[in-house]
C-alpha cells in the first residue's frame, strides 16, 4: 500500500489533521489551522474516503483474478458434477436391474431344484454315444473290408449304422424315461426297436448272401459258418444299441420337456445375473472415478477461492484497522468530537463474485456464502 498508508503514516496523518495548528516552515512557529474534519462536519472525513478507495482499488484486482481463474474452473467443475451425477444414476439403475435379475435367478434356481437331476450328465451321454457310433463305424467297416466288400459300400454301410444306432437309441432311451407318454410316444416305443431290428436283420441277410457268394469263409479257412458269422455281428450291433439306450435312459429326466425348460430358464437367468453383476462392477468403478474427479476439482476451486477471499479480507480488515487508528489519533489531538466520527466508519465491500462461491450449475443458481 505504500509508506503513506503504513501504520506510522496513517497515525501521523490523524495527529496532523486533528490539531488546530501547524508548524510554519519559517520561523518554525505554530500557526493556527482548522481541524480536519471540521467540528460540525457530517460527511465522511476526506482521509477516511481515501483509505476506503485505497481498499477498493486493492481488492478489485483480486476479484478480476478470481473471475479469470473461475472462467476455466467453473465449467470443469460443472462437467465433473454432471459426469458424477450420470455415473451415480447409472450405478443406481444397474444395481436395481441386478436386484431384479438376482431375484429371477433365485426363482429359476428354486424351480430347477425341485427336479431330481438325471443320473448321468448330458456331457457324458454325448461322449458315450459318440464313442459307440465311432466303434460301430470302425468295426463294421473293418469286417466288410476283410471280406472283400467294395470300399465305398463299406463306408456307407458302416457310417449309416454308426449314426442311426446311437440316434435311435438316444430317442428310445429318452421316451422310455418319460413319466407321461403321449399316444405317439407309445407308437414310437414300438416302432424304433422294430426298425432297428429290421435294419440290422436286412444288413445281416445281405452279409450272409455276400459271404456265401464269395466263399470267403472257406478261403480264410474259418471254422464257422456264414450264418454264425452274421449272427455274431448282429448280436454285437444289438449290444451296442442296448448300451446306447441304457446310457440315454439314465441321462434323461422323467419330465424331460419341463425339466429342460426349467434348466434353460435357469441358465438364461444366471447369464443375465452375471452380466448385470459385471455391468454394476464397471459402473461402480466409473462412479468412483467421476467422484474422485469431482472431489479434485471441487477442492482445487474452493482452495483458490478461499485463498483469494482471504487476501481480500486481509485488505478489508487492514483498511478498517487503519481507519480506526486514524480516527483515534485524530480525536486525541482535538478538543471536539465531529459528528462524522460518531457514525459507523465505512470499510471496503468485498464484491459478491468473491464473497460468494457458486456451486450450482443450473440457471437458477443457489449459492454458498463464506
Could you describe the 3D structure shown?
This protein is mainly α and 370 residues long. It is built from ten helices and four strands; from the N terminus they run H-E-E-H-H-H-H-H-H-H-H-H-E-E. It has helices spanning 7-18, 46-113, 122-146, 151-177, 183-214, 216-219, 226-250, 256-332, 339-342, 352-355; strands at residues 21-23, 30-32, 356-358, 367-369. The strands form two sheets. It has a two-stranded antiparallel sheet. A two-stranded antiparallel ribbon has the order 3-4. A hairpin with a 6-residue loop joins strand 1 (21-23) and strand 2 (30-32). Helix 3 packs antiparallel against helix 7 (226-250), helix 4 (151-177) packs antiparallel against helix 5 and helix 5 runs antiparallel to helix 7. It is rod-shaped. The chain starts with 6 loop residues before the first helix and ends with a strand.
Percent of residues in β-strands: under 5%
Shape: rod-shaped
Number of helices: 10
N-to-C order of helices and strands: HEEHHHHHHHHHEE
* Class based on secondary structure composition and strand pairing: mainly alpha
CA-CA gap between termini: 26 Å
**What share of residues is helical?**
over 70%
- Rounded to the nearest angstrom, the radius of gyration is 52 Å
Unreliable runs: 364-370
Q: Strand arrangement, largest sheet?
A: 1-2
Count of DSSP strands: 4
